[in-house]
Amino acid sequence: MLPAHQAEQIILDRVQPLDPQQDRDLVPLAAANGRILAAQVSGQLDIPHWDNSAMDGYAVRYEDVADCSPEQPVTLDIIEEIPAGAVPQKTVQSGQAARILTGSMLPAGADTIVIQEDTQRQGDRVSILAAPKPQAFVRHQGEFYRAGTPLLPAGILLTAPDMAVLATAQCLQVPVYRRPRVAILSTGNELVPPDQPLQPGQIVDSNQYALTALVTSAGAEPIPLGIVPDDPAATKQAIVQAISRADIILSSGGVSVGDYDYVDRILAELGAEIHIRAVAVKPGKPLTFATFPPAPPSPPRPLLYFGLPGNPASALVTFWRFVQPALRKLSGLATGWDPTVIQGRATQELRSDGKRESYLWGRVQIVNGEFEFHLAGGSHSSGNLVNLAQTNALAIVPIGQTRILIGEPLQIMLIHLMQ
Ligand code: AMP
Ligand code: MG
Predict the structure, then answer these.
(1) CA angle, residues 99, 104, 108, in degrees to nearest 5
(2) Which residue's CA is minimally distant from atom 17 of ligand 1?
(3) Which end of the chain is more exposed for a tag (fewer CB within 10 A), N or C?
C-alpha cells in the first residue's frame, strides 16, 4: 500500500495552480484579507514619504551641537513647532532649532534630532545637554522602501500585517487569485440531512458540513451538492454536474472495497485517470485520487477528484493530510502546501498497529514552553466522531512503530491554529 508521503507527492505533482492572469480577481483593499496575491505589488511612493522624526524632540543642525555636554550645553532659538501632519514653514539656520514630534516632517536645514530627554527648554530657547550622533533619529525618505521596487510578491496569503503594507502603499484594488471551487458530494443510501427525523438504519450526513467548513476555512468556495444515493446512475449524474462547476470534487463514502468497481467504472466512463486507490494511513485507508484531463471550455488544468472514506474521522483526516495541500497549491500559494508538523511530547502512551501511519486526534497545548499532546478521550474508532469536537491536532505514529511512550518525542500535525 502507498505510504502517505508518496501519495501526497503523486497528488501534488498533478495539481496545476490557478492562472495568475485568467484566474485573477481585483478586490477592494478591505476585502483582500485572507486572499492570495496573484501579482507582485509595488508602491508609487517612497516609505517614509519624506524625511521625518522618529522621536519627540528638537530638529537641529548637527554641526551646532556636535560638542555639547551637560557641562557645556548649547542653547538654540526655537523657530517653530512642527506637530504631526504640519508642513515646516521655516528653514533651520545655524543657532536655531525646531520643536518636532514623532512622525513629523524634518524641516529644511536640520539634519539631526535631539531627543526631548537630552534638552532643557526655557521659553523660546532650548539647551542641548548631550551631543547626538549625526543624523540621529531621522527616518530618511525611502529608507524602508523605494517607490516602484517590489513590495509584496505574488503567491502570498494576505494577513493583517500585509493589509497594513497594502494600505500604506495605497493599493486600493488588490489582484488576488479567485477562490478555488470545491464540489462536495455525500454518497450513501443511509444518509439524511440534519433537519430530517432519522428512520431506523439512517444516519445524518455530517461529512457535508465538516467538509464545507474545511473548504471554507481553506479560503476556497464550497459547492455543497448534497446526498447522492448508492446508485451508479445517480452517482454518475452528480459527478457530471460537479465537473462542470468545480476545480476539485470531493465525495465521501462509497470508496471502500465493495464499491470500488462502480466508482472506478464511472470515473473511467467520464474520462478520468485513477492514480490512487488506497493509502497506508489510519484512519483513511480507502482513498481514491483521480484526475479528469482538461476539456475545453473548462479550465486548462486537470480537475481533481478525491473519493474520501465515509467515516467522519477518516474524511477529516484524509482532507487535512491530502486534500488541503492540493487545495493550497491549486489556490496559487507559492509555498507552505504541506500540513504544519511540530515536535512535542506524548502525555499518555499512544498505540498503533504498526502497519499504517496512524493519526490520533487530540489537543496540543504549550506547557513550560513545550508542546504537549493530549489524546481525546473516548473511542478512537474511525466510526466515532463525538470526541473529534474541540480537537486541534493529530499525533502521528509512523509505520513500523506500535507505541509511543509517555514523554517520548512525537510528531504532531496542527489541524488549525492553536487557541
Ligand atoms: P462508506 O465509506 O460509504 O463505506 O462509509 C463508511 C461509514 O461512514 C459508514 O458507517 C457510513 O454510514 C459512514 N458515512 C458515510 N458517509 C457519511 C456522511 N456523509 N456523514 C456521516 N457518516 C457517513
Ligand atoms: Mg457508503
Answers:
(1) 70
(2) 310
(3) C
Is pLDDT of 419 > 70? Answer: no
Enter the pTM of the model: 0.92
CA of 144 to the centre of ligand 2 (A): 58
Residues lying with their CB under 5 A of ligand 2, a single-atom ion:
188, 253-254, 310
**H-type alpha helices, 232-308:** 232-243, 260-269
Protein residue with its CA nearest to atom 14 in ligand 1? 310
178-227 tens-digit pLDDT:
999 999 999 999 999 999 999 999 999 999 999 999 999 999 999 999 99
What atom in ligand 1 is closest to the CA of residue 255?
2
Select from 138, 172, 148 the least CA-distant residue to 46: 148
- Please provide the average confidence, as pLDDT, over all residues in the chain: 94
Give me the residues paired with residue 307 across strands.
Answer: 251, 288
Superfamily for the 24-44+157-177 domain: Molybdopterin biosynthesis moea protein, domain 2 (3.90.105.10)
